[in-house]
Amino acid sequence: MKLQEYHAKTLLSRAGLPVPEWSVASTPAEARAQTQAYAANGVSQVVIKAQVLVGGRGKAGGVKLAGSPTEAEEVAGRILGMDIKGITVRRVLVAPAAEIVRELYLAAVLDRGARRILMMGSAEGGVEIEALAETNPEAIIRLHAHPHLGLLDWQARQLAFQLGLGDHLKAAVAIAKGLHRVMIDNDADLVEINPLAVVRSVAADGSVSFSVQCLDAKITIDDSALVRHPDLEPMRDLDEEDPIDVEARKLGLSFIRLEGTIGCMVNGAGLAMTTMDLVNRAGGSPANFLDIGGGARADKVAAAMRLILAEPTVKAILVNIFGGIARGDEVARGLVEARSMQERNVPMVVRIVGTNAAEAAEILRVAGGDIQTARDLDEAVEKAVAIAGAAEA
Ligand code: GDP
Ligand code: MN
Fold first, then answer.
1. Which of 4, 44, 47, 48 has the most ligand 1 atoms within 8 A of CB, as the residue to mutate?
2. Would you state the pLDDT for residue 199?
3. So where are the chain's domains?
4. How does pLDDT run across 309-318, given as a tens digit for each residue?
5. Which atom of ligand 1 is nearest to the CA of 128?
6. 46-50 and 63-66: which strand pairing?
7. What CATH number was assigned to the domain covering residues 243-392?
8. pTM to 2 decimals?
């Protein structure tokens, strides 16, 4: 689950990291009022930022400065409703604009290969790290945190020096260690600050000071760990999630979309993987991974079928059910029900074995139509691959 910048900043700021104060507006009038409140505290300029879960908002025109409440209202009016990479902006973040002296990059990412958290930094912030990795890979600092002890002091100091933050050593060390902590505490896959900035501030008495601030934040939480973080679930942005994923989660189905043409409905993750392997071996390609779970009832089967059929590239459906807790006749009833509601006629090959398999076969036989049955899995896979291949030709 990707977090919006304002949620990510909440996690950073809770962990004690330096984030300039911010507010969130969903109308231009709100942005105006918030800017007015900042101005009352001596803030002369605000930054207004589109809250969408895509990178490069700045380049797309989704990050703008405003010098007055009136201008903030205008700017927010332009950004709200804007389309950024296919996503409509519904909210903006409003914050006192920082006077940036230098932009840097700092992130904690999960390095699955090394089974450690990798700290990545660059003195060339502001640019996208992927672009930097292509043009100037030596400019990226990489350092693995200790798997048990975390990011050690000397590691954090080394990072700080390599980033050219020797003048802000204490702050930089605290930020690097803080990022690592946020990563661990929230079971995140990624915590990215781009830009991490050296910021110039002028106090009311005219004195100038410099500090390091997190001006942008991107956090991705490991979905499988969300059960451990009930406080994070409300941060999910349903507007920006694939409606199919939202529906699958609601139904309690494990559903992952793939590129192929054969929709697969299987119970059990292991059986689902095996089915996908067999489809590949027979020369076909699965359109999805779907585990309908044990003891699936007819309505769940019908709902799962709707998810599969929502993909217009699906040319054949392969149903592979091992009836243990799940009863074959229940599944068959679900399939027939789904078929009756289906708007698009996609051939279905069904293999059901185990509990009530005979009843299932009878239900499918009576239903007739485009439901084919198979004696065993190999035959079912072959039939489905042949149908999908013929449809594509
Ligand atoms: P992104 O483009 O989606 O990564 O959005 P960012 O929040 O990183 O903003 C893009 C760019 O806008 C940054 O690299 C900065 O150059 C600029 N920017 C962001 N916040 C501020 C700010 O408070 N003050 C100033 N002057 N520039 C900012
Ligand atoms: Mn950024």
1. 47
2. 98
3. 1-19+100-240, 21-97, 243-392
4. 988 999 999 9
5. 4
6. antiparallel
7. 3.40.50.261
8. 0.80
